[in-house]
Amino acid sequence: MKLKYIVFGGLLCLGTGLRAQTLPYKNSRLPIEDRVNDLVGRMTVEEKVGQLSKMLGWEMYEKDGEAVRVSEKLKKAVKKEHIGLLWATLRADPWTQKTLETGLSPRQAAKATNAIQRYMVDSTRLGIPLLLSEEAPHGHMAIGATVFPTAIGQASTWNPDLIRQMAAAIARETYAVGGKNGYGPVLDLARDPRWSRTEETYGEDPYLVGQMGRAMVSGFQGDKVGGEDKIISTLKHFVAYAVPEGGHNGGSVSVGERSLLQNFLPPFEQAVKAGAGSVMTAYNSIDGIPCSSNSWLLNDVLRKQWGFGGFVVSDLLSISGLNGSHSTAADAVDAATQSIEAGLDVDLSGSGYGRNLLQAVKDGAVDMQTLDRAVSRLLYQKFALGLFENPYVDEKAVSDKVGTPEHAALARRVARESIILLKNDDNVLPLSKKLKRIAVIGPNADNMYNQLGDYTAPQPDDKVVTVLEGVRATVSKGTRVDYVKGCAIRDTSATDIEAAVRAAAEADVAIVVLGGSSARDFKTSYQATGAATVDSGAKAVSDMESGEGFDRATLDLLGDQPQLLHRLYATGKPIVLVTIMGRPLNLNWAARHIPAIVNAWYPGQQGGLAIADVLFGDYNPAGRLPVSVPKSVGQLPVHYNHDKPKHHDYVEMDAKPLYAFGYGLSYSTFRYADLRVELREEVDDFRATVRFTVTNNGDRDGDEVAQLYVVDEVSSVVTPVKQLKRFERRTIKSGQREEFVFELTKDDLKLWGVDRKWKTEKGTFKLLIGPASDNIVLEGRLVLTKDFEV
Question: Does this entry carry the keyword Hydrolase (predicted)?
Answer without folding.
Answer: yes
